[in-house]
Automatic annotation (TrEMBL):
Pfam families: tRNA_Me_trans, tRNA_Me_trans_C, tRNA_Me_trans_M. Catalyzes the 2-thiolation of uridine at the wobble position (U34) of tRNA, leading to the formation of s(2)U34. One of its GO terms (cellular component) is cytoplasm. The gene is mnmA. GO terms for biological process: tRNA wobble position uridine thiolation. The record marks 126, 339 as: Interaction with tRNA. Residues 281-360 form the tRNA-specific 2-thiouridylase MnmA-like C-terminal domain. The keyword Transferase applies. This is tRNA-specific 2-thiouridylase MnmA. ATP binds at residues 6-13, 32, 125. It comes from Amycolatopsis echigonensis. Keywords: ATP-binding, Cytoplasm, Disulfide bond, Nucleotide-binding, RNA-binding, Transferase, tRNA processing, tRNA-binding. NCBIfam families: PRK00143.1, trmU. SUPFAM superfamilies: Adenine nucleotide alpha hydrolases-like.
């Protein structure tokens, strides 16, 4: 097959490209330039898509002996990922930009261009597995559950998965680094990227304030209705947040307060105790079924509401309009509208199967 290997400049994508070459595919490497003004150097694990990253990707491609190109996707990335991120926060929701990037950039924009140029598949360094069961393609967790990235891929459509390759799905990260060393790849010990790639300093609040300005409002006790303080915008808070609330007086019982809900129209941030954070039920919409099979009636499953955590057993039911109702077997904390909920079915033989994903619209 003709395979386009997306090479970020990190160790995972470099080894994924190498394995595609070893498998006998005709591989071409491509680095996506996602920033209109990329930084020159990374700072440890902060940020990505720098000029340094593009050079690292090119050096890896040279060692593998494959053609290499840089494609400018900065305008589409800004529109689809960055502006969506800002808009969601302005609306009082908590988005995951990595989910949006995989859906809209790597497996929509990049895949569309790859197919138009005659490629059969796009290979990435994601830790996830694809399995064919009874003739149907399924997305599953990776062997290394600590690195599993099926959560951020669960918004892909069946047709997109049919043109995807995840060569690292059966591997552990330590083995991938060792393999990179053996292959002479200079990125073998390069730190993984963390946080949000377009906010390299990690200060999300400052990033949002620069784009949204000040939108003053009140911090209100959810139980008594008492005004406890003021803030410069609901976009500076997330459900479950404890630190940086700007409330001087402690709670009556002396225990910490947490953000319970955000009301962007009124500018109200409601706070309360940790006990008030527990969520028993989740409502979601815009469901996507990667295997092409929607839920058929109430379904026992495991749900995950964050890329690395927020997992609970549940019963989920979906309607034909893409709405999903989830009843949790045990409460989850810090669940916010705008987050993606991913539904899994446990399967010990082939790894947990991704049933589907949906955007959280409310909690109960």
């Amino acid at each position: 097959m003709r395979v386009l290997a997306a090479m970020s400049g990190g160790v995972d994508s470099a080894v994924a490209a190498a394995r595609a070459v070893d498998a006998g595919h005709d591989v071409v490497g491509v680095h996506l330039a996602l920033s209109a003004q990329p930084g020159t150097l990374r700072t440890g694990s902060r940020g990505c898509c720098t000029i340094e990253d593009s050079h690292d990707a090119r050096r890896a491609a040279d060692i593998l002996g494959i053609p290499f190109y840089i494609w400018d996707f900065a305008e589409r990335f800004t529109e689809e990922v960055v502006e969506t991120f800002v808009g969601e926060y302005a609306a009082g929701r908590t988005p995951n930009p990595c989910v949006t990037c995989n859906e809209k950039i790597k497996f929509e924009a990049l895949l569309e261009k790859a197919l138009a140029l005659g490629f059969d598949a796009v290979a990435t360094g994601h830790y996830a597995r694809l399995a064919t069961v009874d003739g149907e393609l399924e997305l599953r967790r990776s062997a290394d559950e600590g690195k599993d990235q099926s959560y951020v891929l669960a918004s892909l459509q069946p047709e997109q998965l049919r043109h995807a390759m995840f060569p690292l799905g059966d591997s552990w990260k330590s083995d991938v680094r060792a393999e990179a060393e053996q292959r002479g790849l200079s990125v073998a010990r390069k730190p993984d990227s963390h946080d949000i790639c377009f906010i390299p300093d990690g200060d999300t609040k400052k990033f949002l304030e620069k784009r949204l300005g000040e939108r003053p409002g009140e911090l209100v006790d959810a139980e008594t209705g008492a005004v406890l303080g003021h803030h410069t915008g609901v976009h500076g808070f997330t459900v479950g947040q404890r630190k940086g609330l700007g409330i001087d007086a402690p709670a009556a019982d002396g225990r910490p307060r947490y953000v319970l809900s955000l009301e962007p129209v009124s500018g109200t941030v409601k706070v309360g105790s940790s006990a008030d954070l527990g969520v028993q039920a989740i409502d979601a919409d815009r469901a996507i079924w990667p295997s092409g099979r929607p839920l058929d009636g109430p379904t026992e499953c495991t749900v995950q509401v964050r890329a690395h955590g927020g997992i609970a057993d549940a019963v989920a039911e979906a309607d034909e309009d893409g709405r999903v109702s989830i009843q949790l077997r045990e409460p989850l904390r810090g669940v916010a509208p705008g987050q993606v909920v991913v539904l899994y079915r446990q399967d010990d033989q082939a790894g947990d199967l991704v049933l589907g994903s949906a955007k959280i619209s409310g909690t109960r």
